[in-house]
């Protein structure tokens, strides 16, 4: 893995950890939903971070959280991805 990929992967993992702290009850009212923002990676690179919250299987069930971190619109395909579930039963 290259330094760039490690940097993006570290940011994606950190963002996913934060995203998974959101409560199912609050997210269920707005899912499917997503946002993006510009930020800086751990190594200081300017990046775009996208988060999406989608129904994992059916509306009202678990919510799939997906994070993509990439270095600008033309580099979306080269971004790091991370994902996890916010379970209905656990919230």
What is the topological layout?
Layout: H1 3-19, H2 24-28, E1 33-40, E2 46-55, E3 63-70, E4 80-86
Antiparallel strand pairs: 1-2, 2-3, 3-4
Characterise this structure.
With 91 residues, this protein is an alpha+beta fold. 24% of the residues lie in helices and 36% in strands. The chain contains 2 helices and 4 strands. It has a 4-stranded antiparallel beta sheet with strand order 1-2-3-4. The longest helix is centred in the first third of the chain and has 17 residues. It is elongated, with a radius of gyration of 14 Å.
Please name the defining characteristics of this protein.
alpha+beta, 91 residues, 24% helix, 2 helices
Which regions contain 5 or more consecutive residues with pLDDT less than 50? none
Give me the count of strands.
4
Strand content: 35-45%
Taken in chain order, the helices and strands follow as HHEEEE
General form: elongated
Mean pLDDT: 92
Alpha plus pi helix count: 2
Question: What is the spatial order of strands in the main beta sheet?
Answer: 1-2-3-4
End-to-end separation in angstroms reads 36 Å
**What is the CA-based Rg, rounded?**
14 Å
Major sheet: 4 strands, antiparallel
SSE-based structural type: alpha+beta
């Amino acid at each position: 893995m290259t330094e760039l990929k490690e940097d993006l992967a570290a940011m994606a993992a950190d963002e996913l950890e934060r995203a998974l702290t959101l409560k199912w009850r609050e997210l269920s009212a707005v899912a499917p939903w997503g946002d993006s923002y510009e930020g800086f990676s751990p190594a200081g690179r300017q990046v775009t971070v996208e988060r999406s919250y989608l129904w994992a299987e059916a509306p009202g069930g678990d919510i799939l959280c997906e994070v993509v971190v990439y270095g600008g619109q033309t580099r979306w395909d080269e971004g790091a991805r991370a994902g996890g579930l916010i379970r209905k039963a656990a919230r």
